[in-house]
Amino acid sequence: MSTIGDTFRKGIALLHAVANPVVESKILLITATGLSDVEILGSPGRKISAAQEKRFFRLVGKRLAGSPLAHLTGKKEFWSLPFRIVPGVLIPRPETELIVETVLSISPDPEVTIVDIGTGSGNIAVALTKELPRARIIATDISVKALAVAAHNARQNSVDNITFKRGSLFSPLRQLKLEGRCGFIVSNPPYVSAGDWAILPAEVRDHEPKRALLGGESGLEFIGRLVRGSLTYLKPGGALVFEIGHGQAKAALALFDRRWTAIGVSPDLRGIPRVIKAVKA
User: Fold this and answer.
1) Over the stretch 152-183, which tens digit does the pLDDT of each residue have?
2) 23 to each of 10, 19, 29, 90, 150, how far by Cα in Å?
3) In the chain, where are the structural domains located?
């Protein structure tokens, strides 16, 4: 039988081409063995079973073949909360936390109605519910699988007051008769252009849901519909908050007309314009 330390080091060597081989080797070893972070790092001489070792190297092989780390571990952290992740549901990114930060920075009414369009794993909706436990939050998605995962993540994080609705864009809002009643509409919409899709890393292009990423020829097709349709459902003073891609700020801002005010763009930690906020006049 091999030791934890030997297996860990072999994993690092094999994963040398990924961004952080030390971290990923540790995460995959935790996944393969069920041991904790402390046990992995604090007991390098501890033996692991042949089955655990085989499982580890199988995971390393899948990672080298392009499988996202979150698909191999089945989880991803967002807003310091754990989220279950499965293939077919978009993996949350750290920059999307800026949507949550933007909503909270506006100091909303504690009982505000918030709609999360295209909720995916439910990460935005769950994070907002944790911060605004008295808010009414509706999370929508066209994918049955995504809604099932989102509902699981709500339960996992002890959240029981999110309403999950299936449908495309604004159809669930029409069913709920939310015209003029929403304090916030938030979304991490599909915004990858057709040109950018072709050059996305294979890890993303081949393993994550195209429908959740591709935003038409320019990348702004869904965003344009989001901006236009939100006017029907936001109350006066309500805000639309959504994520955009690299280089899209100017074109996205041009979608707003005089019916909007207090329009602004916030950069992510790399300084890239990432989240747009606009208030219905």
Assistant:
1) 999 999 999 999 999 999 999 999 999 999 99
2) 13, 9, 10, 22, 27
3) 4-65, 87-280
C-alpha to C-alpha distance for 55 and 73, rounded to whole angstroms: 12
Domain 4-65 classification at class level: mainly alpha
Whether this prediction's pTM lies above 0.85 is answered by: yes
Domain 87-280 sits in which CATH superfamily?
Vaccinia Virus protein VP39 (3.40.50.150)
Model confidence at 114: pLDDT above 90 = yes
Report the distance separating Cα 175 and Cα 183, nearest Å.
18
Cβ partners under 8 Å of residue 142, min gap 6: 118, 166, 167, 168, 211
Query: What would the two tokens of residue 231 be?
Result: 């006017």
